[in-house]
Amino acid sequence: MTRFTYSAAHGRALVAPLMPGDDVDPDVVYAAAVWSGLAEGGDRVAGALVQARGAVDALGLVLAEENGQDAAGVSPKEWSDAVARWRPRLVQDELDLPLHRAAASGVRLILPGETCWPRGLDDLGPHAPLCLWVRGDPATLTRLHASIALVGARAATGYGEHVARELSSDLAQRGLGVVSGAAYGIDAAAHRAALDAAGLTVALMAGGVDRPYPAGHLELIDAIARTGAVVSEVPCGGSPTKWRFLARNRLIAAMSDATVVVEAGWRSGALNTANHASDLGRPVGVVPGPVTSPASAGCHRLLRDTAREVRCVTSADEVIELISGGGMFTMSAMRSTAGPETPEADVRPRTDDRTRVGDALSLRSARTVDEVARRSGMAVADVQLHLGLMRLDGEVEQDGHGWRRLATAR
């Protein structure tokens, strides 16, 4: 593998087909694209460094192995940990391949500050995406001046899908954008209803936008791209792993003026999106369900949660009230998106570095520690530590070729 070296001419040629306009420096576009391959979504150190120095200078600092802790405003340990995360991914072909895939798929790259950049993402601060990969017309994102995230369970009931369709259709007909994650269940019902109403809908993906996921929604995702936009912070070709789904949820919340949880089980990922929205000071609405339905247990839990202000909603009119003044939180209530101030492990689905290592392994082929580090976006030393612990728990095995995940692992 060839170590990555920055070449302005090489980079300009790669990003030329991906730029929606000529008002952005191609060198900056290329550097931002490289950063999106080096750092996982929400990487605070990468975000702070790029915001302080710009994508090009920040990348040059890392390549020159200079100390950037002061520029990023982090401690020496935070800086060394960050560099250790990025270093395994400094591979030329692997950082260039997403750009080739994007060009072949008609994907566009947009950066913070561009006209079509969703301004709500800026509220994420250093956790904001470094760029966005977009299928569809990026200009449609400028129409998200009033938008609602409709989220909920994948294993939705008929009741939940009916409510999602009714809310989405009514909101879309009134000119509001509908934002969701293109998953089975509530997400799909919301997207389809918005499309049927000839409204704007945007899908946020956990993997590359050139890899429709779930595969069963290929036609739905194509339809969204034709009339709206399919968006991701993950480079083209990237896998939709567990931790990327949770990282993606902060983008759904930030791109929307309010988040409505239509139906959610006790530990549904939709609760994670609602928590991000609350952390950002965005209004959160919850649709109640039958008290006997496990599919609505998470919704009822949110309604009982006195630590977060949520509103019960049963119609599009009540959803609109969330953003028309009655339910809007003050931005002074905003908390850090790095996580809640009080423990909520029982509310947010658990994902950690061990999950990332597991996602980076294969059931069939053995992978080296270096390859696992590149796939997971973690430091080699951290990967080795977790692999050792996972082997003790019977989750992985090692042979002469590398490490493999065991099918019997819990």
UniProtKB/TrEMBL annotation:
DprA winged helix domain segment(s): 342-398
Domain Smf/DprA SLOG: 109-321
Recorded superkingdom: Bacteria
SUPFAM superfamilies assigned: MCP/YpsA-like
Region called Disordered, residue ranges: 335-354
Comp. bias intervals (Basic and acidic residues): 345-354
Annotated family: Belongs to the DprA/Smf family.
Name of this protein: DNA-processing protein DprA
Organism in which the protein naturally occurs: Microbacterium candidum
The encoding gene: dprA
